[in-house]
Amino acid sequence: MPYIEDHADSHLVGLYLREVGKYPLLSAERESELARKTQTGDQDARSKLILSNLRLVVNIAKRYQNQGLGLMDLIEEGNLGLIKAVERFDVSRECRFSTYATWWIRQFINRAITNQGNLVRLPSHKRELLLRARQRFRELSQNLGRDLQPWELLEELEQNETSDDVQEVVDLIFSPAIVESLAGEDHETDHDSRYEDTLSPRPDFEISLLSRDSRVNEFVQRLGERHKFIVQRRFGLDGEEPESLKEIADKLDLTRERIRQLLHDALNAIREMIQQSGEHIDFE
Fold first, then answer.
1. What is the distance between the alpha carbons of residues 113 and 263, in angstroms, rounded to a whole number?
2. CB 109 within 8 A of CB 79
3. Distance (Å, rounded) from C-alpha 204 to C-alpha 98?
4. What is the C-alpha to C-alpha distance for residues 136 and 133, in angstroms, rounded to an integer?
5. Which of 6, 157, 158, 176 lies at a C-alpha separation of 20 to 30 Å from 22?
6. For 127-151, what is the mean pLDDT?
7. SS3 of the chain
8. Do 113 and 69 touch, CB atoms closer than 8 A?
9. What is the pLDDT of residue 201?
10. Mind listing the pLDDT tens digit for each residue in 23-60?
11. Hey, what domains does the chain have and what are their CATH numbers?
12. How far apart are CA 181 and CA 85, in angstroms?
């Protein structure tokens, strides 16, 4: 069921947008400076980096409207992704922070939409428990500065909830289907490792594409036109913001699944070219 934004929501969004507009956009140089300071533990720099990118979250969140969540809910999830990006960003990579943050913002928003989709199939009492569990997960993860593990969430809920459905709700939050949707585009995830980094936006190889590693881009140029177009659009190699599979699919009049397959083929081709060249590219 699509979410219908009421007058109160619209008013809240308006107030938020006016507040966000007070924070200046950053130049590439200033962004890099704040990111370096953040890595050394400078909390003031961290706050400035987050606040100056709140508009980026809003712009991305708007694209996900009418999928079951209100705009403010989408923005809230996107802001969590922005914070995660600040924590994970490596200034040594040749990549603007805002470009890297886009991946994290999208992952958190997609997770929220995926979880919301699961809500409609649950009885009302389980749905309410799941909503409380998700909120507690976010709060504790923020307090700890890392993602809460399944057993930690279970222990927390068992102390505060009387429902017999706690284990089922925790299993749902950390289910493989949801983990896969967070980890990227249908990457295989085995049972033993799926909790290790459930919110990683891309494998290291794809992050190197995102960071515009010039050596990797040389191999991208050798691809056929369609494969090259998809890789360039997916990772923003043409100077634009990285696009979703659906956005690329709409441009090429193909299905999202077909674009995913073509992207998979293209990345495999790039790997093979790198191996055949004998060049060592460190993706760590």
1. 24
2. no
3. 18
4. 5
5. 6
6. 81
7. CCCCCCHHHHHHHHHHHHHHCCCCCCCHHHHHHHHHHHHCCCHHHHHHHHHCCHHHHHHHHHCCCCCCCCHHHHHHHHHHHHHHHHHHCCCCCCCCHHHHHHHHHHHHHHHHHHHHHHHCCCCHHHHHHHHHHHHHHHHHHHHHCCCCCHHHHHHHHHHHCCCCCHHHHHHHHCCHHHHHHHHCCCCCCCCCCCCCCCCCCCCHHHHHHHCCCHHHHHHHCCCCHHHHHHHHHHHCCCCCCCCCHHHHHHHHCCCHHHHHHHHHHHHHHHHHHHHHHCCCCCCC
8. yes
9. 33
10. 888 998 999 999 999 989 898 898 899 999 999 999 99
11. 1-114 (1.20.120.1810), 122-200 (no CATH), 204-277 (1.10.10.10)
12. 18
Token pair, residue 70, equals: 């209100």
